[in-house]
Write a structure and sequence with these properties.
Blueprint (H helix, E strand, L loop, with lengths): L25 H19 L2 H15 L4 H13 L5 H21 L3 H6 L4 E5 L1 H9 L3 E5 L7 H8 L4 E5 L5 H11 L7 E3 L2 H12 L3 E5 L8 E5 L2 E5 L2 H9 L3 E10 L2 E8 L8 H22 L13
Parallel strand pairs: 1-9, 2-5, 2-8, 3-4, 3-5
Antiparallel strand pairs: 6-7, 8-9
Helix pairs in contact: 1-8, 2-4, 3-4, 10-11
């Protein structure tokens, strides 16, 4: 770890070099070159500078894109009592948050070396579950910098397996994966059937699976989220209920550039004679906790992705 007096001036260590091989088209190579240039730019800055610069840039440019209109539509649905100006202010804060998260993803190695950047809190029940578990299911949402969840889990001694959405460009996918894979010692699986089998194996070995559970799941269960049915992934509930495992929800709040608070809550998992009802109720409990957190800090949640309908 660097000397505390020099932390703000410390440069990030060299980025992991993924092994890129195989036949790729010109467009894939150009995209990969662009991504590598952006990665080099972000890592040439200090963490704080990169975070603030990217937050400013996204706040300035993202409102011109189509996802801003979607975010405004979702905000109006979620907060019918807020004015358009209030919703716009939340959307702008969201773009700043996402921009900062993007830049900080290139500095995760520095953040994990400086654990004082993370303040970790938990309810008594969640803390007990994380300390005493023999297999654990964790869910989180796209809030603050959600990448910090894996770093905080590592700090607490949890061995994680995670799932991610594979990028279409395999060259870019390998570079992104290389930035994260070290924080998932039990495996970082691309979304799909193999991921399900891998996660079942991980909890069977007494370790932890971590899942982002706030996005729209086309074949998911329609449970309330801001008063509307939101198709939600039932797999965390199915896994926790079926294996009789604790289910813990975590959120990350951005306090400033490169500073975060992580908080965990235990989610109730019913165990009755009606398996399907238990999974539905647990999925609803997850989304209710997420809604509570989003209402507290709406500018730190990702409103631009599809959630309803």
């Amino acid at each position: 770890m660097s000397d505390p007096a020099d932390k703000n001036q410390a440069k990030a260590s060299p980025a992991p070099e993924p092994k890129l091989s195989g036949p790729f088209g010109l467009w894939s190579r150009l995209e990969a070159l662009g991504f590598r240039l952006v990665m080099g730019l972000m890592r040439s800055m200090t963490l704080e500078t990169a975070s603030r610069f990217s937050a400013w840039l996204w706040r300035a440019l993202a409102p011109k894109l189509y996802r801003h209109k979607r975010a405004m539509t979702h905000l109006a649905l979620a907060f019918p009592d807020k004015s358009e100006a209030e919703c716009r202010a939340i959307a702008l804060d969201m773009w700043s948050t996402l921009g900062a998260t993007f830049a900080e993803s290139f500095h995760l190695d520095q953040i994990v070396r400086e654990p004082e950047r993370m303040t970790i809190t938990a309810s008594e029940a969640a803390a007990r579950a994380m300390a005493d578990h023999h297999g654990l299911v964790m869910v989180s949402l796209h809030m603050g910098n959600w990448e910090i969840n894996a770093l905080a889990a590592k700090q607490r001694g949890l061995r994680l397996a995670g799932v991610y959405q594979r990028i279409k460009n395999p060259l870019v996918d390998e570079m992104i994966r290389a930035l994260r894979v070290d924080f998932y010692p039990k495996g970082l699986f691309s979304k799909g059937h193999e991921a399900v089998k891998g996660l079942m194996r991980v909890v069977g070995e007494g370790d932890t699976v971590a899942l982002l559970a706030d996005v729209r799941e086309g074949r998911g269960l329609g449970v309330p989220f801001f008063g509307r049915a939101a198709p939600s992934n039932p797999f965390p509930a199915l896994l926790a209920r079926g294996r009789k495992l604790p289910l813990v929800a975590a959120r990350v709040l951005r306090q400033s550039a490169g500073r975060y608070t992580v908080h965990c809550e235990l989610i109730e998992v019913p165990h009755t004679d009606d398996r399907e009802a238990d999974i539905l109720a647990t999925t609803a409990n997850i989304q209710a906790q997420f809604e509570t957190w989003v209402r507290e800090t709406p500018g730190q949640w990702m409103w631009g992705h599809r959630r309803w309908g």
